[in-house]
Amino acid sequence: MYCPKCLNQSLFIKRKGVIDIFINGKKRDNGRFLYDMDSAREDKLLADFENKCEEFFQWYSNFNNQDPIEYVELLTVDVKCENNCKFSPMERFSAVDVVIKREDIEEILTDLSEKYKMTLQLKI
């Protein structure tokens, strides 16, 4: 991945960490989950992601004025640069297609939008 500090392709996501889920720019306090890419259990990772998304959909389905679900971000601070660049705790990086594949995200969100009768216009 591209490092915004040294301007090289030297950035990588750590093998274990935390991912924050932002949907339409909104994040719930419990909208984060642990990931472990060393574990051979990709199904557990996807199940954890799906559970967190379902919690959001349950919460958001109670809103009176719902915007369509357009933006989904999976962000993490658990990155490292091969050149030892330092990042502030506020700098977050996308984990889409690195930890969870875009196709899996789209499939999970499509199923949940149908279940909760919400409009989905994804622009991941």
Categorize the overall geometry.
Answer: globular
Number of strands: 6
List the domain count as a whole number: 1
Estimate the strand proportion: 15-25%
Average pLDDT for all residues: 90
Low-confidence stretches: none
Q: Please summarize the sheet with the most strands.
A: 4 strands, antiparallel
Instruction: Please give the share of residues in helix.
Output: 25-40%
Number of helices: 2
End-to-end Cα distance: 18 Å
* Assembly type: single chain
Alpha-carbon Rg, integer: 15 Å
Report strand order across the widest sheet: 3-2-4-6
Structural class by helix and strand composition: alpha+beta
> What is the succession of H and E elements?
EEEHEEEH
Short description:
By secondary structure, the chain is an alpha+beta fold. Helices cover 27% and strands 21% of the residues.
Q: Can you characterise this structure?
A:
- The chain has 124 residues and is of the alpha+beta class.
- It has one domain (11-115).
- The chain has two helices and six strands, in the order βββαβββα.
- The chain has helices spanning 42-60, 102-115; strands at 11-13, 16-23, 32-36, 72-76, 79-81, 93-94.
- The strands form two sheets. A four-stranded antiparallel beta sheet has the order 3-2-4-6, covered by helices on one side.
- A hairpin with an 8-residue loop joins strand 2 (16-23) and strand 3 (32-36).
- It starts with 10 loop residues before the first strand and ends in a 9-residue tail after the last helix.
